[in-house]
Structure formats: structure tokens, C-alpha cells
Amino acid sequence: MDKKRKQMLQEAYNSVPMYYRLADNAGIDMESIIENDEWEKVPFLEKDWIISEGTSALTAEGAVLQMQGKLMYQRTSGSTGKCMDIYWKKKDYNKSMLPLWYYRYRYYGIRPEDRCCFFYTIRELGKEEKRFFRDKNTLGFSKSHVSMEELCDVLAQMREFQPKWLMLQPSIAILLCDCMERYNIEPIDSIKYIEFTGEILTQTVRNMTIKHFKCQIADQYGANEFNSIAYECPCGKKHILSQNVLVEVRKDGKEVPSGERGELYITSYTNSVMPLIRYRIGDYGRVTHNHSCACGNHAPILELESGRTVDYISGPDGERISIYALIRAVDSLNCLGEGVIKQYQFVQRAADHIHVRLVVDDEYDENDLAGAEGKDRLCERFLSYVEDERLRKMKFSFEFFSKLLPEETGKVRCFVKEI
């Protein structure tokens, strides 16, 4: 066990209540494991466990800073179907981003001060979402407003803003390319680079994006729990950002040889207030060690085999509607009700029917939602946060569960299409 891992284990198991209980449940002596460098005996960490622990997943220092409102805060939701609170010190967060910025510049000439456009799920929880957000170097657009007509305006604003690069999910890139195709919109000359994140990037989407934007592209694999995990070089290889994370590939709990398929477990090296050690992220892939790459980066190479897929709601008129319009409603409810929704899934049962499956916190109190009266009122509030007019015209039904079970991938899909 290297010095970095050993120090991280000592700090986590000496100051985080969640890890005390994890060791007790596993019946292990962490002091002995650390002293004897027995990394293989360190228990794995499940997302369900972290969700149930809440702020007990923080160090003693982190718990104090959280109560004082001095920590950065994120909530994972995205397309995994589970919601979890993540806390960072600002300096740790920035440290976790340094390797990514280093390689963005080394490979593609992208600097932090370069103008960027991106799409966001939510910026102001509990409020009507603004269609765009702009400051000196960034221009962001709401994923709740991505009809073909609105995307024409988005592309016009991009052209006026003159960004050097875009950060996109593949599902958003497809919508932009569809819009450019339909309305014969020319490429934006200022855009030299597009970075994909958040979903599986297929070769079809790569080809479509290059055709319409005529720029360099790269894929970045990350998660709110860690920030960036691996980044694609110009040779097409995703190198693990080893300064930020440790990635292990395991099958039936045992490490697999280099290049073999297994489930991914991630350890963070940079989050000092909420350290995640051997965290089962729910994705599968292969990691190849000791591989030389023409780009000059000798870090292990990750091949991701499962992850967040590109999903769309099919509108009654056949137009694609972004699933993020519904994810935003979950995030808004969780802000209002302090994390009341623990899991969710959207099922499209007909062209005009969305069925919503929800898992609500066991300690949910109907009065937590600003005077809400039971689950019927919670459903009404959910619908009030759905801003896309096309979705507002559809029929919604709701069903509550104690738990949504994962599929073979280890995740609960955010969206299921039954039509």
C-alpha cells in the first residue's frame, strides 16, 4: 500500500463515523489492516450505504463546516436513479479539477479563461428555470428548453458569444445536430473543441458532431462524487487521472488482470471532508496498465463498457424531448424537501403518458414540503416544476416504492421507454 493510500485510510477511519460502522459491520480491525498494508481487506463502499449515513459520511471537520455552510454542495441525480449529497472544500474541489485542466491544455489548447458554452439541468433550485445564464467567459443553457425552435435561438446566441469550446452530453449534441441539419445552420467558426461528458459517447454521435461542428472532440468520464476520472487523448484513449482517483476493476470482489472486464470501484485522493474509498460506482469496464500511448501519457487506460445512455422522451408529434426536463423536477423537489426523493425512474408508456416511480425518504413528513399534504401533494409539486410545455400536455401517473432494484449493470435506469 503506497503512502498516499495509507494516510487516506488512517484519516478516514479515524474521523468519519460512516467508516467506523463499515469496519464494525465487516468485522475487521482497520488498525491492523493499515499497519500491515493489507489494501485488499479494506471493505467496499456502496451508494445505498452513503445515502443512509447522510452527514455521517463527513469527517469531524467536514461536519462542522457543513453546519456552518462553508462547504460546496452537490446532489447526484443525473441518470442513475439515485440521489446522494456530495460535499467538498473549495480548495479540494479545485485540486480535483487540476489534472483535467492540465490535459485540456496539453491536448487541445483549452484554458480556464477560454469562452465556453454548456447546458445545465438546474441552477436555481425551487425557482422557475432561466433559459440561459451568462457571465464573462461562460454561457449556459437550460436543458428544460431544448425544442427545435429554442435550439435555433441557442445556436444564434452561441454564434454571437463566440465560444472556443463546448461541454455537452451526447443527447444534447444530437439535438443540436438535428437542429443544424433541419434548418441548414452553418458551423460556428469560433468553436475549436467539444468535450463530451455524462453519457456514453457512441461513434454515431462522434461522426454527427464532427460533421456539423467541424472541430476536435474528446470524451471525459467523471462523476459528481469525484469530478473527472478519465480523459480522452488525441489518440482516442481515455487515460485515468491518477492524481485524482484510483480505479480498480473487480469481479466477484476480486481484482481482475490488466485488460479484463469487471466492475469499477473508485477511490478519491482529493476530497478531504467526504473521502470515498473503494466506492462501487455501478459501471463496468477494463483498465489496461503499462500501456504506452503516442500522446506520451503513461497513465492506465480505461475502456468503459456501460454507463449513462442517451435517452429521449418521444413527444406525440415525434419530436425528441430531453429527459433532463424531468430530472430538474426531482432536483427542485429535493431542494424544497431536503432530499425527500431517494430514487426515481421515468417510464414512457405511451406517446402522451409518463409514469413516475419514486422512492421517498423513510423519514418523510408531509409537512416537510412547505405545507404539502401527503404524497398526492408531492406529485402536484413535481408537476409544477416540469417546465417544458410539451411535457405539460402529457398525462402523468405516479407510483411509490420502498426500493427500486438495479438491473444487470448495477444501476437503476433513469428512463425506460415502453413504446
Q: Name the poorly predicted regions.
A: none
What's the β-strand tally?
A: 21
Count of DSSP helices? 12
The helix-and-strand class reads alpha/beta
Shape: globular
- Gyration radius, to the nearest Å? 22 Å
Overall mean confidence score, pLDDT = 89
Largest sheet: 13 strands, mixed
Proportion in helices: 25-40%
Strand content: 25-35%
Descriptive report:
31% of the residues lie in helices and 27% in strands. The chain has helices spanning 3-15, 17-26, 30-35, 47-53, 60-67, 90-108, 148-161, 170-182, 203-213, 324-336, 374-384, 389-392; strands at residues 72-76, 84-88, 116-120, 132-134, 138-142, 165-168, 193-196, 216-223, 227-232, 238-240, 245-251, 254-255, 261-268, 279-288, 301-304, 312-314, 320-322, 341-350, 353-360, 395-401, 415-417. It starts with a helix and ends with a strand. The model has no long low-confidence stretch (mean pLDDT 89). A 13-stranded mixed β-sheet has the order 4-5-3-6-7-8-9-10-15-14-13-11-12, with helices on both faces. It has a four-stranded mixed β-sheet with strand order 20-19-18-21, covered by helices on one side. A two-stranded antiparallel ribbon has the order 1-2. The longest helix has 19 residues, at 90-108. The chain has 419 residues and is α/β, with parallel strands linked by helices.
What secondary-structure arrangement, pairings included, does this model have?
Blueprint: H1 3-15, H2 17-26, H3 30-35, H4 47-53, H5 60-67, E1 72-76, E2 84-88, H6 90-108, E3 116-120, E4 132-134, E5 138-142, H7 148-161, E6 165-168, H8 170-182, E7 193-196, H9 203-213, E8 216-223, E9 227-232, E10 238-240, E11 245-251, E12 254-255, E13 261-268, E14 279-288, E15 301-304, E16 312-314, E17 320-322, H10 324-336, E18 341-350, E19 353-360, H11 374-384, H12 389-392, E20 395-401, E21 415-417
